[in-house]
Amino acid sequence: MKVVSSVSLPSLTAAVTRLQRQLDALSHLAPGQRCLTLSEAVEAPPLIAWLAAQPQEAKIYWRGRRNGEEVAAIGIAQRHRLDRMPDADTLDRLYRQLLQQDGDGDLRLYGGVAFDPKQPAWPEFGQAQFVLPRLELRRQGEQAQLRLNLSVHNREWSQELSDAHTALQAVVKAAPLPPLGPAHLLSRQDTPNRARWETLIGQVTHPSFIDDTPKVVLARETRMRTSAQPNPWTVLHAWQLLNPGSYQYGFQFSEQHTFISCSPERLYHRLGRELSTEALAGTTVRGFNEADDQALADALLSDSKNSHENQLVRQHIEAQLSPLADYVGVEESPTILKLNHIQHLHRGIRAEIKAGVSDLQLLQALHPTPAVGGLPRDAAMSFIRQREGFDRGWYAGACGYLGQNESEFSVAIRSALFSPERITLFAGAGIVGDSEVEAEWQELNNKLATVLGILNGL
Ligand SMILES: C=C(O[C@H]1C=CC=C(C(=O)O)[C@@H]1O)C(=O)O
Ligand SMILES: [Mg+2]
């Protein structure tokens, strides 16, 4: 029989006080140790609302697709920002050094890498940025932990203790999320526009191109100006309610710019040497009723263009993982992954990676997959870089966290960047030989429908 504890969890304020006491008792760090985490059980507030209310930068929200774990993190104990993509050896050294610092084995660096290291980086985000947050609220069901991370990376221990005190003192209670409206759309600009899209599809599907480059995922940037800027955390919250089975995350390194995503796509999840990834490509809309919805799903499963889109992703992932793994297994028949407005073809892929293979090797092997880049990777990336007409930045990049025993990354599609002057939305579609201009343009619109619905509700 399960014994239900009658002892209630401490409030956030009480947990902060307890952490302050733990901090007071810490005058030194054990020799050789570089990081330390203090933690307290806590009765979790609504995490996004708590995060939105905090005065401290940076703010990170993460909710994985797997087990409902939710994280809200604030402040920075360590920041690793790369403005140019360093070579693999430098990255590998940095990564191993970071993970060696791990005190309780559960330290996580949250962040992301851009889609294309050869495109100009988004200011504030960089080509890659990972942070060890100062404070993390991790919630799993009713259980939550408030974690305070301390680090002596590039600094004195006494300074670190004093900064940690300041961060604890600045924590405030959750407040209701600011409402979305009222606001209205002032302007909208699509890059590429419809005419340019037609040209690009013509170039990609031309026999002389497609024979060597069977798939290019072309994307569109939609810039919108509204009469009042909605709070990005309120938008993320509304989005997550509509797609509860997707990854949900947000990165705000300063108050100016916030990148949010409600992505259905996993790049990979690694637990020890067990790896789980997927081929997610091929799209149709949802039906108005159950019969309609099933008919659309059946049509998607038997459609040759969409099957081809998915197969190319699957084959590439399998080939990329094989040299790094003792075993790779792929679901032969795709299944349907249903979202609020659209449905996708999905193939689960599992692997047991070889001992010693690092997350950076995995990131380099898997990212970007042909679900967002194309095939062959270099030719498709070069086409996108030269012709698409905007910098993808973190859209279609990889966002998540690195840990010693466990790491997880999502592909940052279905995403939006909030800037002082505008909101930028992104959507892409896999272009293959049988692609049709209008159908692929509609697919972009379908992929934006959920977030546009939220923003139109302003
Ligand atoms: C590139 C995107 O979606 C990818 C993921 C799923 C299905 C896709 C498709 O059917 O084209 C795309 O490959 C995006 O949403 O921006
Ligand atoms: Mg498609």
Automatic annotation (TrEMBL):
Pathway: Quinol/quinone metabolism; 1,4-dihydroxy-2-naphthoate biosynthesis; 1,4-dihydroxy-2-naphthoate from chorismate: step 1/7; Quinol/quinone metabolism; menaquinone biosynthesis
Signal peptide extent: none
Positions contributing to Mg(2+) binding: 309, 443
Key words of the record: Isomerase, Magnesium, Menaquinone biosynthesis, Metal-binding
Chorismate-utilising enzyme C-terminal domain span: 195-447
Family from the record: Belongs to the isochorismate synthase family.
Cited function: Catalyzes the conversion of chorismate to isochorismate.
Name the record gives this protein: Isochorismate synthase MenF
Species of origin: Ferrimonas gelatinilytica
The encoding gene: menF
